[in-house]
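Lab notebook, bench 4. The sequencing result for the construct came back, and we need a structural model before the next group meeting so we can plan mutations. Quick request posted to the team channel:

Model the 3D structure of this chain.
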Amino acid sequence: MNAPTDPIRPTTVDLAAQYESSGVAEVLRELDAELIGLAPVKQRIRETAALLLVDRARRDMGLAFETPTLHMSFTGNPGTGKTTVALKMAGLLHRLGYVRKGHLVSVTRDDLVGQYIGHTAPKTKEVLKRAMGGVLFIDEAYYLYKPDNERDYGQEAIEILLQVMENNRDDLVVIMAGYADRMDRFFAANPGFRSRIAHHIDFPDYSDAELARIADTMLEHQGYGFDDGGRATFADYIGHRRGQPHFANARSIRNALDRARLRQANRLFETAQGPLDARALSTITAEDIAASRVFTGGLKIGTTQRESA
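Done. Here's the predicted structure in token form:
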């Protein structure tokens, strides 16, 4: 009986071909298509993908290989696309063979920390069990740590997470997300996390122009659109809203459009006389935006905007 032979290993690799055949190119194209702006984030994702492609090629050639640390920290203000990018990252890691399933489990403190003794460990372990083979996304991770409350059980969840992040890094990727300053304080108080996280990605706020494009895209997906006056007034709305409390980038834009559609529907009911065509039912006007409480005392619409509305 012949002794088993070692598999024949490739001696060269075409990285461009691997980039396409692995599906990585498709994931990155989807990221570009679905998310406006975020150029530095997309660049970091491309760099990470390149690292993993080279790492996989080295493994296939039998070169020195060690499973890379892929745990990540996403920092930035609300509504900047962190959850969406985490979902795309899960798909990318699955296509490259670094996670078995490629699913995303998104949680907050309430999903991990119990309210009484003996409650936290089973909650945290159940979440980790669901996330195995994929990516665990912990939003506002700093709320796990409450040093001013000695009866808080967050520390127990932290210790379990740290152990699993170290021992199961070939079957689970953890992404922690939140405001940059609070994440810095969290990592300073819990150095075990910082030492296990290799990739820190900062998500910038969207510019006014990018938010306007996001608004157009959101409306298009819903079968709506602005007229000229509505678009101009919404651009003004963005400038006002950014300076007010609790601004959440794309999330605030989505909420504003939901309210604009509500006002549009009521305007049509109150003013329409006779049948309405599809354009009337699908157009957001200046009047629908200007009624927002964001404009102190209401917005005075210019003649041109009034006529186009």
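Residues 298-309 have pLDDT under 50 and may be disordered.
Will bring this to the meeting.
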